[in-house]
Every structure is written in C-alpha cells, then in structure tokens.
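Budget justification aside, the reviewers requested a transparent look at the raw inputs and outputs of the sequence design task funded under Objective 1. We therefore reproduce one unedited record. The lines immediately below are the structure tokens for a 341-residue chain.
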C-alpha cells in the first residue's frame, strides 16, 4: 500500500525538527532574549485545535522552566465580544499553522495593543499573524497535506521549548533539544499496535497524562477522533479518579502517557489502580506493575520526553486508522484549514 500523507509527514518529523533548530535559532534566540529583558509577570496563549494543545504543552513548559503563570485566552474575547484585555507586563504566545484564522489574529493584535509582548509561532511566515507580532517564529515544518496535524504540532511545541530555553539560558534544555531528531526516529519505530486488539469492538477510551504529558493526552484524543472515528477523552491522572471512573467497566481501554519526569510514579500508580477497577490499561512506563507496558523512546530530559510520546502515538494512530479500514488522510467533515471568527 502506498504510504499515506500522514505517515510520510510523521516520518518527516526528525528532519523538520532539525531544520527548525538550525534555521530558526537566530529568531528563537532573539525572541527569548526579549522575554528575558522585558521580564513579564505572566504569559497568555492564543490558539485552537492541535495548536491549542501545543499551547497547553507550553503552559507547563513556561511554568516549569521560568516560574511564570500561564493562562489560555479565548480568541472570541476580541473577535466576537470586542473586549481589550489588560495585558501590560505580559507576553502573548499565539500559535497557528496557517496564521490567518481571524479570531486568532484578532486576539493577538488586541494583546499587542493591550501591552503584551507578542510572539507568533506559525508555519506560514507571510501571514497576518506573523506580520502583526513583535516576533514571528517560522516553525519550518514544510507543507503539511494531511488533515491531521503531526509535524506542525511537534515543531510548534519544540519552537516553544527552544524559546523558553533561550529566555532562561537553559543550556541543558538546549542540548536536549538538539538531540531530539535522533530520539524522534527511535520514537517512530516504537510499535504500539498491541493496543489495537483492546480497541476492536469498542468505540471509546480514556487517555491520561499529567504535567506536560497531559497536553499530549489532549492531542492524542483529538487524533483518534479525527483519524479513527473513535471517541476518546483525555484526563489528568488525578482527575480520572473522580467522576470519569464511573464509566470504567471490565475491559474499558485506557492509554496512560507517562513521561520520565516527577509525575511518572503517580502515573504508574493511576494506571495500576485503573487495572484494579477492571480497565485494560497500556502505559509508557516500566514502573507500573499491572498495566501492559508500551515501548518508549526516552530523551533524557523531562521537558522533551513527552514529545517523543506523541511521535510514537502518531505512528500508532495512523496504522490503527488503516487497521479499521479508514483513510487517515480523508476524515469525514474535516478540512486542513479552519478559519473561525
């Protein structure tokens, strides 16, 4: 079978990340230096869809590396409600592949007028979002034909991490980022198809994460809906133990995305607890005793480790879509660029 656009773009991730870290270094360093010199009191993000999951990943990245609180701002605050937020003394990260969704552009422009240092992260440097920002970071992912974003999500998240590494002069993180292409090649090769048997005959599952991997769980749940016509819900490993636990019946499938960071022991404990409730749990950790382990590519840094997990997941979900007799390049009712007001 001819490879899908989605599969080819997953395989391009290592090269795309290397291109970003090489070609975008000067812009990332300049924007990071500006953040450091302005010393914002807080950060806001503006995004939708997969880009908003990259923004959620950035929330944890900023809070854990710089100690700055981060809030997601609703784009409709500007585009529909016409309200100007008081953002003096802040930095605004606006993330959009196309850079032209009217609501994202409107909110980013209002943030700049409201006093924020604005940084656009986009795959389209000649776009309204890029032109209206103080700094425009081209993620250099190249053309993406698959409706389901893969390499653009990864490059957006890597760009955000590199931005904060420069802002905080974190040499350890910069070094870890430079090693990501090699780790991503290993991540593509991690075979997660043992999950398929547990998903056959069902149409719903939980995906759990914690800390930065919570954002990866959000992204994974969206991709299952987009490419596999399967209902998936993402939860924090802490939150799933409350109301959502009522849905867990014998055989209910759960994917636990554990990274090599301080949350890994609690993720393993949650995975095993869900097994005890009858769930069929797959976990990317060797610490769990009852859950079925999945292979993972460890990156050696707690901030980059979750990104290797999403690369492995992308390889799985593309294969699983075909396993279900679906074409991941042609999800029903969807198109590549969605412009919202």
């Amino acid at each position: 079978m001819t490879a899908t656009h989605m599969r080819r773009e997953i395989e391009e991730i290592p090269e795309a990340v290397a291109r970003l870290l090489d070609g975008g270094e000067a812009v990332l360093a300049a924007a990071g230096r500006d953040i450091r010199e302005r010393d914002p009191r807080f950060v806001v993000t503006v995004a939708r869809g997969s880009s908003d999951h990259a923004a959620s990943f950035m929330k944890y990245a900023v809070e854990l590396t710089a100690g700055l609180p981060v809030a997601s701002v609703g784009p409709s605050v500007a585009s529909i409600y016409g309200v100007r937020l008081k953002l003096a003394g802040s930095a605004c990260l606006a993330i959009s592949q196309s850079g032209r969704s009217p609501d994202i552009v409107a909110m980013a422009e209002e943030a700049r007028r409201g006093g924020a240092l604005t940084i656009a992260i986009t795959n389209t440097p000649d776009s309204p979002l890029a032109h209206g920002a103080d700094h425009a970071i081209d993620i250099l992912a190249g053309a993406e034909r698959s409706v389901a974003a893969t390499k653009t999500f990864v490059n957006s998240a890597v760009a955000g991490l590199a931005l904060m590494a420069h802002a905080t002069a974190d040499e350890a993180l910069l070094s870890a980022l430079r090693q990501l292409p090699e780790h991503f090649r290993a991540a593509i090769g991690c075979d997660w198809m043992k999950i398929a048997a547990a998903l056959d005959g069902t149409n719903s599952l939980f995906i759990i994460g914690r800390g930065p991997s919570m954002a990866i769980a959000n992204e994974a749940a969206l991709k299952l809906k987009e490419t596999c016509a399967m209902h998936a819900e993402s939860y924090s490993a802490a939150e799933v133990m409350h109301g959502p636990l009522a849905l867990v019946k014998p055989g209910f499938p759960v994917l636990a995305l554990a990274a090599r960071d301080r949350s890994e022991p609690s993720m393993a404990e949650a995975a095993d607890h869900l097994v005890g409730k009858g769930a069929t749990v797959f976990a990317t950790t060797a610490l769990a005793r009852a859950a079925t382990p999945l292979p993972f590519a460890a990156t050696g840094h707690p901030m980059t480790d979750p990104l290797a997990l999403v690369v492995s997941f992308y390889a799985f979900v593309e294969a699983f879509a075909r396993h279900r007799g679906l074409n991941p390049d042609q999800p029903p009712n969807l198109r590549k660029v969605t412009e919202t007001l």
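The mean pLDDT is 94. The first strand starts at residue 42 and ends at 46. Computational costs for records of this kind are itemized in the attached budget.
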